[in-house]
Description:
This protein has two domains: 2-172 and 350-362, Rossmann fold (3-Layer(aba) Sandwich); 189-348, Rossmann fold (3-Layer(aba) Sandwich), CATH 3.40.50. Helix 1 packs across helix 14 (352-362) and helix 7 (202-215) crosses helix 12 (318-329). It is globular and about 65 Å long. It is an alpha/beta fold and 365 residues long. It is built from 14 helices and 14 strands. Helix 7 links the parallel strand 9 and strand 10 (220-224).
Amino acid sequence: xxxxxxxxxxxxxxxxxxxxxxxxxxxxxxxxxxxxxxxxxxxxxxxxxxxxxxxxxxxxxxxxxxxxxxxxxxxxxxxxxxxxxxxxxxxxxxxxxxxxxxxxxxxxxxxxxxxxxxxxxxxxxxxxxxxxxxxxxxxxxxxxxxxxxxxxxxxxxxxxxxxxxxxxxxxxxxxxxxxxxxxxxxxxxxxxxxxxxxxxxxxxxxxxxxxxxxxxxxxxxxxxxxxxxxxxxxxxxxxxxxxxxxxxxxxxxxxxxxxxxxxxxxxxxxxxxxxxxxxxxxxxxxxxxxxxxxxxxxxxxxxxxxxxxxxxxxxxxxxxxxxxxxxxxxxxxxxxxxxxxxxxxxxxxxxxxxxxxxxxxxxxx
Length: 365
């Protein structure tokens, strides 16, 4: 089968995240199974216009705001006659391949943004985003679809999609070779690991830590990930006002080996994101014995199984999340019981099941 994937970022994009890992892990397995996979994504600084990684042919066009239109032009000029299926991956907006190749298109929904637009854009633009999302989802509702969580499937069904047309993919996990568990830090250590922006909840993470630090003065917060230099400077100023700058360490971007080491040494992952397709880092933390503290939001609740393998409180309640973390940190038995529930993450490490289920869904075309 000749498969075309349309996604605004690829695995090498500096801003790539869990969605790009998922997409690439699926694509490279399809190549191993004898299929041809081409992916069109946006260009980024120092990125090659064309590149092949793990057999997946990457074509980079324009930027995040222009790649959708350029992909449409490139498809008609170069790929129309030799493409069987188009995976139209949506992040805010789809590539609208359902307009020009409806019989070949499969919608790949990592999340339904909805109110998330207000977390990213100012009021007028956010409102436009919500309206556009409602319009395109209405147009795509009869298109075969892939969703990365039960929450996303439910969001699509609420918007008119038929349940039988939406396949929920089991998520896998990429674990570096030689990964090992480290002893926990001597002092209570919390880690925030994600892109550093408001959407991912970094400001709530700092507020949560401020409440924990008052009760546990020896506690530490590690902030791991990249973000806007100006925004990070503002965060440092905010932390300084709280009065615990020496208890917080910014690591910036780290490689995979270092990432798992830091996760393993931490006592809790603080992940107060307001909306996710799938909280991949929660699984990564769980693999090395570190429980997560999260909000009850779509995508995240699927990973922690509604609080059965992590701390979960209602959305936008830093005080409740801090209170629960403090309670567990002060009770060794509770903490060890919570760690014991994390062993189930080990059963979810294979991307093979993800790729197989996705392929069986697109074969219906």
